[in-house]
Design a protein that fits this description.
Strand order of the largest sheet: 4-3-2-5-1-6-7-8
Number of helices: 15
Order of helices and strands: HHEHEEEHHEEHHEHEHHEEHEHEHEHEH
Shape: globular
Length: 425
């Protein structure tokens, strides 16, 4: 049943991305407005929105709430996009939700059907609080059909240049699109942003009747000592700091928030994985902002002298570190991304660079990447993984980053997981 529903869903991929919520709102109405059946948190941002969503959901679950989490795109299996009480939705429930969404939305796109299916699944499962990650932008995204009174809070993580053909050519323009998730009477929590971005978000939010909560202006009395605004603060720490503000605005108690954060895992995002072949580091840094954040976090891990104990980032096993280990890079990108600027940031990390083509739409040719930054163009991701591991040995670390579909395929290969076709929406 699930395979038939997925086959039908994937016939919608050629429709691409539709900007606007009219068709989505109409389909939700035909389905009895499932998006109103649970409280929701709506999170946008260029980078970090998936991590903040995952942390928020984990904290809400630790507080005793029955939770839903909707994210995109998937790493390996489509089902990863819909999680209930911390678990990937089971095949029967997903098949039921997709079949119904396809029926209620015969004219919907791939992402719109996926979004409606998540709403239906959450309603059927009796979810109390759903955390919804925006797909693209905010104002015109399919998830933006949620609203008061069920919408409890909105948030924006970071703003950077990405999808400039659809969202605008400068940061204020992109910020205005993402601020389009603001709703009257609903708090809007915003991560640290430059002054011109702050002004753009404030303009939209205030016009819509939402009062922005600027995280850098708020006291951090529920944060661990020394966690605030350190110059070399890693981007996972920044995401955690914003998620903590979101949870406080939701009224979650600090103890449950900390417990949830300690248990939270977000695969493919600064993720350390140990295998018999050696350690791997995965990160879906696919644009310059993500690459800057990744390299800053790596620099933080490498800082200090070798006698200092390693303090592993959240989710890494104790003692995991890049210090005094050879490093190799496996990178791949889509052709419509700023892969030249991204690779220029990543290339100085190591001279051992291997390029592979993501199993997705229009990928940047590995030979073109090698011509830009030096290194070796490989035939497949599996070839690149093997070559990179051979270059650093069992003790070295292979960093796999770039396209989400490349990271997902690499993880699936190493873990022996099944894969659905990747879709970058």
């Amino acid at each position: 049943m699930l395979s038939a529903a997925l086959r039908e869903l994937y016939t919608r991929v050629p429709f691409g991305v539709r900007l606007g919520t009219d068709a989505m709102a109409a389909a939700c109405a035909r389905a009895g407005n499932p998006e109103r059946a649970f409280a929701s948190v709506h999170i946008a941002g260029t980078n970090g929105k998936g991590s903040v969503s995952a942390l928020t959901e984990a904290a809400a679950r630790a507080s005793g709430l029955r939770t839903g989490l909707y994210t995109s795109p998937h790493l390996a299996r489509f089902a990863e996009r819909v999680r209930i009480s911390g678990e990937v939705i089971d095949d029967d429930a997903l098949a039921e939700a997709l079949t119904a969404a396809l029926r209620f939305g015969p004219d919907l796109t791939f992402f719109e059907v996926a979004t409606l299916a998540s709403f239906l699944a959450f309603r059927r499962a009796g979810v109390e609080l759903a955390v919804l990650e925006v797909g693209l932008g905010g104002r015109h995204d399919a998830t933006n059909v949620v609203g008061p009174p069920s919408l409890r809070l909105t948030a924006i993580t970071r703003i950077a240049l990405d999808h400039t053909d659809r969202l605008g050519a400068d940061l204020p323009s992109i910020a205005r699109e993402k601020a389009g998730i603001a709703k009257a009477g609903v708090p809007l929590v915003v991560g640290p942003v430059p002054p011109e971005v702050r002004a753009a978000i404030a303009e939209v939010a205030l016009a819509r009747g939402a009062l922005p909560v600027w995280t850098e202006d708020e006291p951090a009395d529920d944060e661990p000592a020394g966690a605030r605004d350190a110059p070399d603060e890693t981007y996972p720490a920044r995401n955690e700091r914003l998620a903590r503000r979101v949870c406080r605005a939701l009224g979650l108690d600090a103890g449950s928030v900390q417990l949830g954060f300690d248990r939270a895992r977000w695969p493919g995002r600064f993720e350390w994985l140990e295998t018999p072949d050696g350690p791997w580091l995965f990160d879906a840094a696919h644009n310059p902002d993500g690459a800057q954040a990744l390299t800053a976090s790596i620099a933080r891990d490498l800082a200090g002298n070798g006698s200092e104990p390693s303090v592993a980032p959240r989710g890494w096993p104790p003692g995991a570190t890049l210090r005094e280990r050879p490093l190799a890079l496996v990178f791949g990108a889509l052709a419509d991304k700023d892969f030249a600027a991204t690779l220029a940031i990543l290339a100085p990390l190591t001279p051992r660079r291997f390029y592979a083509e993501p199993r997705s739409r229009a990928a940047a040719p590995p030979a073109a990447l090698a011509a830009l930054a030096g290194g070796q163009a490989m035939g497949t991701p599996a070839d690149a993984l093997c070559a990179a591991r051979a270059a650093v040995g069992l003790r070295g670390v292979v960093l796999v980053c770039g396209s989400v579909s490349l990271v997902g395929e690499a993880r699936a290969l190493l873990l022996g997981e099944a894969m659905d076709p990747p879709v970058g929406m």
